[in-house]
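Before relying on records like the one below, remember that each one covers exactly one chain. Contacts with other chains, cofactors or solvent are not represented anywhere in the record.
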Amino acid sequence: VWGGGVVFGEGVLVGVVAVAGLAVGTRGLHLDGLADLADGLGSGKEGAGALEVMKRSDIGPFGVVALVLNVLLQVGALAQLGSREGAMVLGVACVAGRLAVTWACREGVPSARKDGLGALVAGTVGWLGAMTATAFTVGLTFLAMSRDSWIYLLIAVGLGLIAAWEVRRRAVRRLGGITGDVLGSLVEVTTTTVLVTAAALLT
């Protein structure tokens, strides 16, 4: 975000550079998870049928729509926030996305498959670990913004986590548990919700 602001000034290219940087840095892992989950849930199939759709190497119409909307919302929100404020908000949004994964891996949340990333991490986070990660995120939110603005960013983080909770709930109900794709989608859903909400509240 900061680099885009230096090179291009304020505008949509700031958001494009930032979102592209995130995609390259994560090798598109979370975006891939978002597309796969959208295809799986959009297929209308339950359990193993939806998991089979998600496992395919191609991407379906639901996945395409989810990716396009997600990227457009992130780019638009960052362009509206501007390079200086956008950098702070994006940092907190990315941390919030990982916090959503932490809560999705708490004890009592099952894995949808017997193998894969979901099976490896499902149920591995206790309440103390989840609360510690939450406290860290709240503290980071406070440090990232001014005294007058941090509460709005905290609201954005809260809404992002609520959105992730709803996606996780639907995924567990339809798939029988979490998978690596579900976790990746939670990162994107949370990040996007935080960015869009922050853009609405802070500008």
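The mean pLDDT is 94.
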